[in-house]
Amino acid sequence: MELDYKAIGKRIKIARINADMTQEQLSEAVGLSPTHLSNIETGTTHVSLNAIVNLANALSVTTDALLCDSIIKARPQIEQDIAAVIADCDDYEIRMIRDVASALKETLRKNKNLQQS
Questions:
Q1: Distance from the CA of 110 to the CA of which of 12, 56, 57, 78 falls in 20 to 30 A?
Q2: In whole angstroms, how far apart are CA 25 and each of 16, 17, 21, 75?
Q3: pLDDT (tens digit, 9 = 90+) per residue, 35-80?
Q4: Would you tell me the crossing angle of helices 34-42 and 5-18 to the nearest 10 degrees?
């Protein structure tokens, strides 16, 4: 499996925004230039393992949170992501999301043989 650098960059950007940090503040905290951090966030440059660890520490997130789109066994992080998506839903929205998720699950399982092709 190839690393999805765009997805990693997007997760870094989201974590940075959630930490209420600017690119300049984060780049200074981890010893990267603001331009390099910008390129990491857009996925136009590959991020090193050392940088991933430093970014995770500076953002107070796990490396799994930044890499989960590239990890096959990332269920705990994905479950946290789903919980965050539905956390502020009203009763109507949560029911609709449940119905869509149930229908999707049923379709995926019905068509599982297509995955194996």
A1: 78
A2: 9, 11, 6, 31
A3: 999 999 999 999 999 999 999 999 999 998 899 887 777 788 889 8
A4: 120
Regarding whether 50 and 91 lie in a shared domain, the answer is no
13 and 66 inside one domain: yes
Asked if 59 and 40 sit in the same domain, the reply is: yes
Write the CATH number for 21: 1.10.260.40
pTM: 0.68
Length of the chain measured in residues:
117
CB within 8 A of 27, min separation 6: which ones? Answer: 33, 34, 36, 37
Q: CA 30, CA 15: separation in Å to the nearest integer? A: 14
Number of domains observed in the structure of the chain: 2
Instruction: Dump pLDDT digits (tens) for 7-30.
Output: 999 999 999 999 999 999 999 999
